Amino acid sequence: MHTTNETTTPRMPPPPPPSGVRGLLGQFMPHFNVPVRSGEAESIVRELFSLAGITINGTTSGDITVHDPRFYERLLRDASIGLGESYMDGWWETDALDVTIDKIMRANLKQKVTGSWRLRALTVKAVIFNLQSKARSGASVEAHYDIGNDLYTRMLDPRMVYTCGYWKNAKNLTEAQEHKLDLVARKVGLKPGMKVLDLGCGWGGFASWAAEKYGCTVTGLTLSKEQVSLGNELWKHLPVELRLCDYRDAQGQYDRVVSIGMMEHVGPKNHRDVFEVIHRCLKPDGVSLIHTIANNVSLRHGTPFIEKYIFPNAVAPSLAQLGKAMERLFVLEDLHNIGPDYDPTLMAWWDNFDRTYGEISARYDRRFYLMWKFYLLAAAGASRSRDGNLFQLVMTKTGTAQPDYVRQS
């Protein structure tokens, strides 16, 4: 019988994947030719940014100026962390950071630059561990909300509201936040004498509004010592009590339960816990509202830069995740997306911070300034591009009459 070489020659194993920069870029740049030399990282970044209408060393609003050529490899290697850290290090700058990020998001560049295995490990970590467990949550809150009331009193409005405002008919940040607080109050139908639970109450902005404008008694829960201390001092003339308490430990029965800006911090493994707590604490005929940033897709962890420097272990839910978590507990009475209002809110916070930074610069150095600038303006650009949303969900227990404001709208 005739035997071919195919039967006598052993198969050679496939060649190993390219190593070094060539292999690394091939992992997270599948749509681009992999460069042979690390110096070609610059050409890839230039090509990427051109897709977004951004010119390196250009003169159009949102273009960037690169001061250190190491920026290119750092961006490709570390994705959002590389972009943010290199900005903090002064390796690049732009005349309008919010415009730059808006362009990046609209061109979907974050899907093209996914970073190294170290960044992908965040997903594995989020799958294995409950990163927002009771044991971990206190440290995560402290890392952001307890850095200093001197910063937040300058950046926020007089009621210290650190969530998206409602800019319909508002001329400034104070009005936008008051309009948002009253929108929430009207959606849940506040009336004098009601007992209200505010989960993740911050400095008590909504609690003060509900007590002062609607005659309610409000209990607020937060894990921030600074928020409890300042909030109880600010609203000591009102029937408001802020407590240092994890939302999972909430007790009692309330006419209304609201959560404004907490859902982003609880994590996918704990979404159901939040709804169960609300269900447990809400009277049978009560109304609840959740106000939350929301992702367009379901994620297990947040943006790596934000997780590392701004909000440890924070990840906004998707509408699908929220819907699944409330099953068999609540009827969704109303869903309102005010996502576009986050852009002007963030820009107002940035203006306040930038304008008053000189008063606190002794405590917050130049690197912090650039970090905070990147956080606020990048978030504004992401909001402008509709990378995320801001949902208000009004809910009742099964069998409860639909709230009046829903029927009348």
Oligomeric status: single chain
Main sheet summary: 7 strands, mixed
Query: Structural class of the helix and strand makeup?
Result: alpha/beta
Proportion in helices: 40-55%
What is the residue-mean pLDDT, rounded to a whole number?
Answer: 87
State the total count of DSSP E strands.
Answer: 9
Kindly report how far apart the N and C termini lie: 87 Å
Number of helices: 18
**Strand line-up in the sheet with most strands:** 5-4-3-6-7-9-8
Note poorly predicted spans.
1-36, 121-129
The CATH architecture category of the largest domain equals 3-Layer(aba) Sandwich
Can you identify the CATH class of the largest domain?
Answer: Alpha Beta
CATH superfamily of the largest domain: Vaccinia Virus protein VP39
General form: globular
Task: Predict the CATH topology of the largest domain.
Answer: Rossmann fold
N to C succession of SSEs: HHHEHEHHHHHEHEHEEHHEHHEHHEH
Question: How does this model look, in words?
Answer:
This protein has 18 helices and nine strands. Strands 5-4-3-6-7-9-8 form a seven-stranded mixed sheet. Strands 1-2 form a two-stranded antiparallel ribbon. The chain has helices spanning 5-8, 20-28, 41-51, 70-88, 97-106, 117-128, 134-145, 149-155, 173-188, 205-214, 225-234, 263-266, 271-281, 304-309, 319-326, 342-360, 366-384, 404-408, and strands at 64-66, 92-94, 195-199, 217-222, 240-244, 254-260, 282-295, 330-337, 388-397. The protein has two domains: 20-115, no CATH class; 131-408, Vaccinia Virus protein VP39 (Rossmann fold, 3-Layer(aba) Sandwich). Helix content is 47%, strand content 15%. By secondary structure, the protein is of the alpha/beta class. The longest helix is centred in the first third of the chain and has 19 residues, at 70-88.
